[in-house]
């Protein structure tokens, strides 16, 4: 194996995973993150297959006592005038694939703590790439520059590397958003409906999801947990400015972190779900403060490399979140790159092989997540009128 100098742009999930994997493999790695300070406050609940958590533990990327919950069941709920509090549950699914639910910030902290302090530089914004056949140079906003054998862009869904190197692959706005929030368990009237797993609550305008995650301090005991919720709903691009507060960037559809959605828009949404969801679930949303909104985009690159630049995580492929594959994809890209480089001294061959494998896998989850987005948000049938058998058939057809 040839030892490489590697610059990583972006110090979030994919960037830290790459730094750990490539650093352990013996490469000389440096991470450059645009944000100042720690990224803990960014994410909320994440769902990924339990096997992925097991493999992260096996690879010592997270500790054995990593705080998370396993979903035993997915219960469907619809509004019902005979049962206004909880609605009716036409289907309860025991999924073959088990999922674990956790806090985004716990995963980031676990990965970040494994990156040596002297390899991670925050407040470093990359503004330019000079890409060549056998090295790549990155320029930062303070006009300093550094040359590396390989530069990995893990710079997220609005990746500058994707825009510069793959201009024919723009982000596609899916036409809907995820409105999200969290509520401490102590504010629930009862925890029982969420005890066994995830509640999927259906409106014709899109699915809503409710599940427990550990508290930001890692609390997993009854009473300490937080409820994570997501409401998907269509929003035309033209209507976007209606949701923004005065401090927001009105020119593009971008994520609205807590505080950037206008109070009036948040109140209007709360009234809407009160009318459309069973009372228990509407109350969770109405009691949540500092809600936020993420527009759903997708894009899938045909190649994960160009000369001495590689892209990983959301920078390379952004799949709609319904398949729960986002975090796994970024970590997989990183681990497989380290493995591929370890197998040969022929860097070009290793990068080509890695790139084509990543693109093939990404294409599958990209297409699946589009189908799920269509079924779960854009073209939701009247689940309330479905029998259990009809729901099962509809689910099979949705992923076929
Ligand atoms: C509504 C919603 C629900 C989701 N649910 C799930 C789920 O349940 N399960 C799941 O697996 N995934 C889920 N995801 C997806 C998951 O959150 C992402 O796939 C994952 O966080 C992406 O990680 P990343 O490291 O690739 O990018 P990011 O986390 O976006 O990190 C990119 C980093 O690069 C930095 N950066 C950007 N530009 C520069 C620059 N020029 N210079 C230096 N640094 C820069 C940024 O500051 C940032 O820290 C969900 C996403 C959404 C929107």
TrEMBL record:
Start and end residues of each 2,6-dihydroxypyridine 3-monooxygenase substrate binding domain: 173-298
- InterPro entries in alphabetical order: DHP_3-monooxygenase, DhpH_subs-bd, FAD/NAD-bd_sf
The family database entries (Gene3D superfamilies) matched by this protein are listed as: 3.30.9.30, FAD/NAD(P)-binding domain
PANTHER family cross-referenced by the UniProt entry: MONOOXYGENASE-LIKE (PTHR47469), OS06G0597600 PROTEIN (PTHR47469:SF2)
Protein name per the record? 2-polyprenyl-6-methoxyphenol hydroxylase-like FAD-dependent oxidoreductase
């Amino acid at each position: 194996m040839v030892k490489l100098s590697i610059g990583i742009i972006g110090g979030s999930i994919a960037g830290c995973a790459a730094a750990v994997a490539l650093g352990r493999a013996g490469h000389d790695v440096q991470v450059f993150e645009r944000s100042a300070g720690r990224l803990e406050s960014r994410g909320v609940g994440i769902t990924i297959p339990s096997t992925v958590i097991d493999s992260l533990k096996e690879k010592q990327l997270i500790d054995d006592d990593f705080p998370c919950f396993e979903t035993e069941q997915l219960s469907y709920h619809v509004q019902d005038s005979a049962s206004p509090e909880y609605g009716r549950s036409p289907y309860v699914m025991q999924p073959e694939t088990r999922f674990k639910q956790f806090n985004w910030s716990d995963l980031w902290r676990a990965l970040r703590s494994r990156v040596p302090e002297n390899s991670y530089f925050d407040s470093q914004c990359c503004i330019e790439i000079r890409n060549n056949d056998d090295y790549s140079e990155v320029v930062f906003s303070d006009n300093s520059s550094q040359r590396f054998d390989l530069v990995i862009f893990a710079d997220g869904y609005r990746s500058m590397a994707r825009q510069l190197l793959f201009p024919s692959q723009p982000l596609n706005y899916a036409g809907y958003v995820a409105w999200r929030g969290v509520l401490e368990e102590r504010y629930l009237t009862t925890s029982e409906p969420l005890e066994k797993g995830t509640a999927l609550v259906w409106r014709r305008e899109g699915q809503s999801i409710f599940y427990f995650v550990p508290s930001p301090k890692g609390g997993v005991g009854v009473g300490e947990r937080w409820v994570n919720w997501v409401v998907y709903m269509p929003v035309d691009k033209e209507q976007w400015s209606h949701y923004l507060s005065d401090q927001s960037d009105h020119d593009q559809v971008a994520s609205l972190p807590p505080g950037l959605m206008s109070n009036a828009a948040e109140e209007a949404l709360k009234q809407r779900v009160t009318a459309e969801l069973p009372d228990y679930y509407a109350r969770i949303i109405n009691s949540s403060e500092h809600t936020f909104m993420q527009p759903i985009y997708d894009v899938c690159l045909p190649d994960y490399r160009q000369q001495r630049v590689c892209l990983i995580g959301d920078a390379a492929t952004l799949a709609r979140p319904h398949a729960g594959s986002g975090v796994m994809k970024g970590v997989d890209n990183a681990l497989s790159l380290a493995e591929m480089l370890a197998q040969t001294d022929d860097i070009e061959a290793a990068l080509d092989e890695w790139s084509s494998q990543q693109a093939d896998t990404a294409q599958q989850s990209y297409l699946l997540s589009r189908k799920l987005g269509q079924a779960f948000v854009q073209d939701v049938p009247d689940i309330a009128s479905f029998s259990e058998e009809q729901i099962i058939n509809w689910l099979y057809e949705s992923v076929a």
